[in-house]
Input
Amino acid sequence: MESQPDSLVQIASRRAGGAAVADAPVRKPGWLKVKSPGGETYAEVRRLMRDLKLHTVCEEAHCPNVGDCWNHRAATFLILGDVCTRNCAYCAVAHGTPEPLDREEPRRLAEAVEAMRLRHVVVTSVDRDDLSDGGAGQYAAVVREIRLRMAETSVELLIPDFKGDEAALRTVVEARADILNHNLETVPRLYRIARPGGRYDRALELLARAKRMDPLQVTKSGIMVGLGETWDEAVTALRDLRAVQADLVTIGQYLRPSPTHLPVARYWTPDEFAELRRIGMALGFRHVESGPLVRSSYHAWEQAERAGARP
Output
């Protein structure tokens, strides 16, 4: 089961000044094939997002599950604009200087949740290191607006690290979302390459702090594989997440958004994902969602129900 790490030299041969990475492509296996999104419900959701001027990570991050989720009337809303102040080497979201904060965004998002009659909503954001609170106040406002309109809807927040700002995290925790998610993403050895604006220990500390602030808060995290980590490194990341009492975890395959992003070192097999799920459940997670196409919000409504994270 042990996978060999890709060399740092190979992984580091990435976008230099925006140039395409020259690595030979790894052939995508059949289990990663998905249907093109479409259908009446998909089109309706798409129109609603446009009418309310909302962004979704489903589109911005080129999620392969957009058709499946939208046809189930589920979407992951992207707040604080669609331009990120960081530039992670695996992420398709645009990097640059964001627009000013939109104070009406929480209200419009809550209107969309009401119009779609969502039973579970996931809200995430770009990193906004330009804001004094990193956008924490906007997250709290979103939760309040949703509660006003749809009190029975469970709310999941997938938050940035706020550069380790404890006050910003407290603002979000005190909003009392049903699930608080912050993704670990990858293993320590690859952080400098894949996530230069983040820190492995800071991500773990955020989850630990959230539990200290509110021991009843359901916490969640996720990792992706295929960047060159070994089997043992992936399992160690799961152990590290349980050590900070993370309740839920998602494990998915990294898919390269474009030739300017990090190459895929290896495609992990469905059997390997199944074994990671078995290990995660043995470690004590309430629920482990593990599979090639799994993303943070993949079937999040089912994860919330299985974890008992309903309002």
